[in-house]
Write a structure and sequence with these properties.
Mean pLDDT: 97
Largest sheet: 7 strands, mixed
Bound molecules: nicotinamide-adenine-dinucleotide
Shape: globular
Number of helices: 15
CATH superfamily of the largest domain: Aldehyde Dehydrogenase, Chain A, domain 1
CATH architecture of the largest domain: 3-Layer(aba) Sandwich
Structural class: alpha/beta
Strand order of the largest sheet: 15-16-17-14-13-19-20
Strand content: 15-25%
Distance between the termini: 92 Å
Low-confidence stretches: none
Oligomer: single chain
Number of strands: 23
Helix content: 25-40%
């Protein structure tokens, strides 16, 4: 069992439908584990099609007849700000629960809780500042955009930073006036049920937010296939995204897909090496390496390669792995034994695909729980599986390069294209490389910090569509064009000739 068990843990995690906590109609449940000891600490309601039907019915009623979609932006904005206040006020409790359920180090979980509040505050501001297009066609017409929320949004989220990633979808969906059905990840259902009380206390009307727990193939699948849900926002693995894409085709649903990554961090010889080492360590080992934008392939220019890998490996060996609830911990426990087994299989594979410089297994002092040593492989070839495949754990592949062209070929030589990190003091090279790299986001001489106004999303197998700022509002709304004649009507007069 984890060293710290939060007080008042629920033994049963339920759905929240139409303003009430409920079990599955069938009574089906699934076990929920804590990752530091892999002990079952709760059962969660396992939603089936009939539970999704109820949740969509509640969300549809709230959308068609409730006040939420019809409120003035300022009124909705006030509610969103109250949500942010409530999240901030309980950030320590949120972090405690999230750490217990996911194995994320407590200091990092706290940062994620605060970011969740910030997501609500940001969209609260955005909707009151929003202006839509209006065009005057001199002497003829005025055209304007009538923006309308799309309806019931299906939100499907993964287990890494679950509460924060849920907020990333909930905030713009609710800000836009949509009502929602959230299906959180089955590995980590604990924090999602906190939304119910937060929304209730903030004044969100019943039926606007609905939560159905359950397995992806059951509850998630039923949500994706429900004809009353016109749009699906999904974050998760690329293969799951492909299945959902196919299943959305029947009803031509709107889709936003934030998928996997295998992002390169490119370190040129002219870089500030100290800063690059700090950032590339944080980039792959923060959040236990369970991070979609992890810079999990580091490409290093040959003249500084040996120096870089020696210093990098020394630091990796020194990373504090341990009890997720200890503020000194830098890498906690991986989310679930199944995921642990997957990451460990890559660690073993890496021993034949690269030169092991740090880690390579479970820390000796931690015989239980899903702990993995920060693991560093050098001299990894482009065709190696640990170079190509998303591991989603504290494992990094480092590869040398000799020229800018080779670096670009290596950076782009995978199916993913989520993020890229570039370290160089040459301004021209930095921008040229940034523009040529196949990724949705690039950080130059920077670790992963993102202003909420900027686009977020991947290219290639890393995603479809971009959210962030107004792009998120665009996803959850329709922009209907309205055209009004202001001068005389100029219509070709069919049938009026002699
Ligand atoms: P996953 O794809 O296994 O599951 C994600 C969600 O989809 C879960 O809620 C799951 O229950 C549900 N699901 C599974 N099968 C489904 C189906 N057939 N129909 C509908 N729903 C289904 O992903 P995961 O293992 O929970 O998360 C890790 C992955 O998420 C990694 O690949 C990571 O890169 C990615 N991720 C991407 C981003 C991003 O913004 N690009 C952010 C975080 C995580």
């Amino acid at each position: 069992m984890a060293t710290h068990t939060p007080a008042n843990l629920p033994e049963r995690i339920q759905h929240y439908i139409g303003g009430k906590f409920v079990d599955s109609i069938s009574g089906a449940t699934f076990d929920v584990l804590e990752p530091a000891g892999n002990t079952v600490y709760a059962t969660a309601a396992a939603g089936q099609k009939e539970d999704i039907d109820l949740a969509v019915a509640a969300a549809t009623e709230a959308f068609e007849n409730g006040p939420w979609p019809r409120m003035l932006p300022r009124a909705r904005s006030r509610v969103l700000n109250r949500i942010a206040d409530l999240v901030e006020a309980q950030d320590a409790r949120l972090a405690e629960l999230e750490t217990f359920d996911t194995g994320l180090p407590i200091t990092q979980a706290l940062g994620q809780a605060q970011r969740a509040a910030e997501n609500f505050r940001f969209f609260a501001d955005l909707i009151v500042a929003q202006a839509d297009d209006t065009y005057k066609v001199p002497g003829r017409q005025i055209n304007y955009v009538n923006r309308k929320p799309k309806g019931v949004a299906g939100l499907i989220t993964p287990w890494n930073t679950p509460f924060m990633l849920e907020s990333w979808k909930l905030a713009p969906a609710l800000a836009s006036g949509c009502t929602v059905v959230l299906k959180p990840a089955e590995f980590t259902p604990l924090s999602a049920s906190l939304w119910a009380k937060i929304f209730e206390d903030a004044g969100v009307p019943d039926g606007v937010f609905n939560l159905v727990n359950g397995l992806g193939e059951e509850a998630g699948d039923a949500l994706v296939k429900h004809p009353g849900v016109p749009l699906i926002s999904f974050t998760g693995e690329t293969t799951t995204g492909q299945t959902i894409f196919r299943n959305c085709a029947a009803d031509l649903k709107g889709m936003s897909m934030e998928l996997g990554g295998k992002s390169p961090a490119v370190v040129f010889a002219d870089a500030d090496l100290d800063a690059a080492i700090d950032s590339t360590l944080f980039g792959v080992f923060s959040l236990n390496g369970e991070r979609c934008t992890a810079g999990s392939r580091i490409l290093v220019e040959r003249p500084v390669y040996e120096d870089f890998i020696a210093r990098y490996a020394a630091r990796a060996k020194n990373i504090v792995v341990g009890d997720p609830n200890d503020p000194k911990t830098e890498v906690g426990a991986l989310v679930h034994p199944e995921h642990f087994a997957k990451v460990m299989s890559y660690v073993e594979l890496g021993k034949s695909e690269g030169r092991l410089l740090a880690g390579g297994g479970r820390p000796e002092a931690l015989p239980d729980g899903n702990y993995v040593q920060p693991t560093v492989f050098a001299d990894v070839a482009k065709n190696a599986r640990i170079f190509q495949e998303e591991i989603f754990g504290p494992v990094v592949a480092i590869t040398p390069f000799d020229t800018d062209e080779e670096a670009l070929e290596l950076a782009n030589g995978v199916k993913y294209g989520l993020a890229a990190y570039i370290w160089t003091s040459n301004l021209e090279r930095a921008h040229t490389f940034a523009h040529a790299v196949e990724s949705g986001m690039v950080w130059l001489n920077s670790h992963n910090v993102r202003d909420l106004r900027t686009p977020f999303g991947g290219v290639k197998a890393s995603g479809l569509g971009h959210e962030g700022g107004y792009r998120s509002i665009d996803f959850y709304t329709d922009q209907q064009a309205v055209h009004i004649t202001v001068g005389p009507v100029h219509t070709a007069r069919f049938g009026a000739s002699q």
